[in-house]
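Re-run requested by the PI after the first attempt was lost when the workstation crashed. Everything re-entered from the original request form. Ligand of interest: magnesium ion.
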Amino acid sequence: MPDLIISELTKTFQTKVAVNHLNMQIPANKFIAFLGPNGAGKSTTVGMLTGLTQPTSGQITLGDLTPETLAYRQQIGVVFQYGVLDEQLTVRQNLKLRASMYPNVQQSWLDRIIHDLGLTSLLDQRYGTLSGGQRRRVDISRAMINRPKLLILDEPSTGLDIQTRTVIWQVIHQLRKELKMTVILTTHYLEEAEDADYVYVIDHGEVIAADSVAQLKHEYAQVEMTLCSPSPETLLTNLQQDGYAAQLEEDKVTLTVPDAQTSIDTLVKYRKLISQFDSHEGDMNTIFLALTGKEIR
Amino acid sequence: MFGFIKRNLQLFFTSGSNLFFSVLGALISFVLYIVFLKMNMASSLTFSGKSAVLDPWVISGTLTVTAVTTTLNALSQMIHDRETGTLADFLMTKLAYWQLQTAYLVSAFIIGWLMQLVMAILMYAYFAMVDGLSIPWELTPQLIGIAGFSSLVWTAFSLLCLSFVKRVDTLGKLGTIVGTAAGFFAGVYIPIDSVPSSAQTLMKLTPAPYDAAIYRQLLMKTALTDKFNGAVQGQKMAFETAFGVRLKWESVLSLNDVYGVMIAFLIGFVIVALLLMRRSRKQVMVRI
Ligand SMILES: Nc1ncnc2c1ncn2[C@@H]1O[C@H](COP(=O)(O)OP(=O)(O)OP(=O)(O)O)[C@@H](O)[C@H]1O
Ligand SMILES: [Mg+2]
């Protein structure tokens, strides 16, 4: 599959800018995460990637295909944020119907994904009566019917327990390998983004950071230190005089420093004032905080 | 596309409440007639064996109402699917937007057709039992044909109505209004002659009285020939125009004229609906 290229993609609703001049080049067979808080513009971007929403301006191209074409849509599978199958029909009826609406879907393939996602015992239950996690599994199997080259998942694991999430991701990663499928995931779960090859951090419809998780950590994650002291006030004043944004929290001094070396220097310099300390590297949450000034979760 | 049409039929016929509400308007006119209107109307007629005339008369009107409400109800699935995002999902398949739209229309058409036939059977069965009405089996092919034609026109009408509807919420209200109005426009509650002439004109601006007239001319033919055999010239015609068997513009319309009017309505609805539909693709994603 050629690269998926998004250029200057913009979507405005009346006066509200939901997606603002987005640029991305997504190579085949990669696992990409869009990380962003509520209202960041993730679903709107997904809508445009599926060809269901018209961009206000900008283009999306997959080789020489654009999202309005049937050929483009044949290449992709989507798990929408909200379940969209027929509530009154059974899982089997739903999947069979969708399968019949694609050219030559093999029964063996259908059986395979049904089995992999553990849906065998749910086949004759009505979709509307399934639990949230069961629905999600059905949604994913539906998205896989046409062996997509590009799978787009809009917050697939919101409200799911760990086991279900694990199963889902095992299946998706397995299928990704087999089908050489690109996966685009939107999420506000940091753990999920951590597995991605590449993360786009999105806020207010704009990409505010784009890199591999390791690189993002390297660049934005600072070292968070917590220091215990017999005289915390003195320590705080000293640190502040040195230019650190240190804070006092319940007799403990907290501060962030750019890297591990600086943290050692700090510890050495004030060793007499420190009785205990804790220090760890920031996770995606701190990255996010550093980038947007907002807590995620 | 067949799979998708089958799905629409399945959703319609497996939902009991859906089925019931789609024919509620028709049931109301039918029940009103049985318990109340029939006696009223019969008292104004002079000949004997009134049921033979009045029963097919109400069947005709009720079938028209059935056509209106069932096609609208069936086509509503389109709005429903749009709002829930299901349409968006179907758009990801190999079917193009216009094919899905066509499939919704075909489904509504089939549903309207079948439901009219079902209602015809139920009503004839009832009257055969209660009034001893003889069932005109020989008219079956024509009845099937008219039901199909009427379903076609009303499907186009529903498409036009639904072009204005974006939310399922509005849909319920629209259904109620159309369901109630249909009985009046088809002239089932009261014969067309008994309403003020301005109201008559209003009725004639919809396909409802024409559709009912086509049914009446078929289903009441034998009974009327029978009753007015040897009656004074013009008496039969007077009765027929009073009860909406024949409709008058300047002069009395022939059956071909009535079909012509219906076809004109059909074309008109389709054209306007198509003009309105040009923007509807954009609204597919009410919710993503
Ligand atoms: N149809 C619409 N009309 C008006 N505004 C819209 C519409 N759809 C989305 N928006 C606005 O665009 C912004 C982006 O919405 P979007 O659904 O893309 O966010 P999101 O990143 O998917 O959020 P979440 O994590 O809550 O799903 C929001 O502020 C939303 O209110
Ligand atoms: Mg969203």
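Saved to the shared folder this time. Chain A touches chain B through 34 residues (CB under 8 Å).
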